[in-house]
């Protein structure tokens, strides 16, 4: 099985973070769907990931994956909480941001068969995985 180079793994982590950031900007700014509070918290972790990992690639910093892991883990924790709320495993209703805002349980919040909070969790998990793989080569 072929091994990813540290730079390739870091590039993949950045691409996931960058694509996720663009996707939520599209949803919010083009589709005019206001995010719920938990989505805002997830964005607070994802947006810096795109910047920090991109700068790490630009500067060829092999240790930037540490920051990717830290930010992705924080974002994944919020996303996991959001998914558990969505599934009803945590008995707390998900409230929209405003009386006229979207609900995370609405059908327009499902993409590729997955709710947006689950897609966020997948993105954070991928960023953490690729960031970890980028550090493996630096440690050897």
> Between the first and last Cα atoms, what is the distance in angstroms?
18 Å
Q: Describe the strand arrangement of the main beta sheet, using strand numbers.
A: 1-2
Structural class: mainly alpha
Structural domain tally:
1
The name of the CATH superfamily reads DsbB-like
Rg over CA atoms: 16 Å
Task: Give the H and E element order.
Answer: HHHEEH
Shape: elongated
How can the largest sheet be summarized?
A: 2 strands, antiparallel
CATH topology: Bromodomain-like
Helical fraction equals 55-70%
Q: Tell me, what is the CATH class? A: Mainly Alpha
**CATH architectural label:** Up-down Bundle
Describe the structure.
The chain has one domain: Up-down Bundle (Bromodomain-like). The chain is built from four helices and two strands, in the order αααββα. Helix 2 runs antiparallel to helix 3 and helix 3 runs antiparallel to helix 4. The two termini are 18 Å apart.
Quick gist of this model?
The chain has 140 residues and is mainly alpha-helical. The chain has a single domain, classed as Up-down Bundle (Bromodomain-like). The chain contains four helices and two strands, in the order H-H-H-E-E-H.
């Amino acid at each position: 099985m072929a091994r990813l180079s540290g730079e390739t793994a870091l590039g993949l982590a950045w691409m996931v973070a960058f694509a996720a950031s663009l996707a939520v900007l599209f949803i919010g700014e083009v589709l005019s769907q206001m995010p719920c509070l938990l989505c805002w918290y997830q964005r607070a972790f994802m947006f810096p990931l795109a910047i920090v990992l991109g700068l790490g690639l630009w500067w060829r910093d092999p240790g930037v994956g540490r920051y990717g892991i830290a930010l992705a883990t924080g974002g994944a924790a919020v996303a996991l909480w959001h998914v558990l709320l969505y599934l009803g495993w945590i008995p707390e209703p998900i409230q929209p941001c405003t009386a006229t805002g979207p609900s995370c349980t609405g059908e327009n919040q499902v993409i590729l068969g997955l709710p947006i909070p689950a897609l966020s969790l997948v993105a954070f998990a991928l960023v953490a995985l690729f960031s970890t793989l980028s550090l493996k080569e630096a440690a050897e």
